[in-house]
Design a protein that fits this description.
two-stranded antiparallel sheet; membrane; transmembrane helix; 2 strands; alpha+beta; rod-shaped
């Protein structure tokens, strides 16, 4: 619950974000980049391989 001190509302970091901490941005970026490279590699081998 929020408390007030000297006219300012004090919240915990989790309550201030109004969400639970999710997966890190680095993990999400790595996974999505890896998946994109894999898909593009499959497309390249299927259509452009000589």
């Amino acid at each position: 619950m929020a408390t007030e001190r000297h006219g300012q509302i004090i919240e915990t970091p989790t309550k201030a974000r109004q969400a639970e901490p999710g997966p890190s941005v680095l993990a999400l970026l790595t996974a999505s980049t890896g998946l994109a490279v894999l898909i593009l590699g499959i497309i390249w081998f299927a259509f452009f391989r000589v």
